[in-house]
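Now for one record:
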Amino acid sequence: QVHLEESGGGLVQPGGSLTLSCSASGLNFDAFGLSWYRQVPGKGRQWAATIGADGNTYYGVPARGRFTISRDNAKKTVFLQMNNLETEDTAVYLCTTNNYWGQGTQVTVSS
């Protein structure tokens, strides 16, 4: 059974940084790309970033230039390094692969 678990969220001031982690189990991690999305209550999920099985990375508009996605296949973990955070980045951040989703981790950007 595939399980994705996000961690690393929290409260941060505008301009600050956070690194989110998503640990995976129950799948051949190396063979799949993984993505980060974010969701604000009352709004749809917004794509943030994707890393392919080959390590290629792709970023959505809100992430470009500020977020970095990476993966550690040995640890079966994908990361999202977020810099220069803005209040608009406040959301629940979720990771997904192969139609499986984690529960998410809350990121709150506030002074």
User: Anything to note?
Assistant: The chain is about 0% helix and 50% strand. The chain has a mean pLDDT of 96. The longest strand covers residues 18-25.
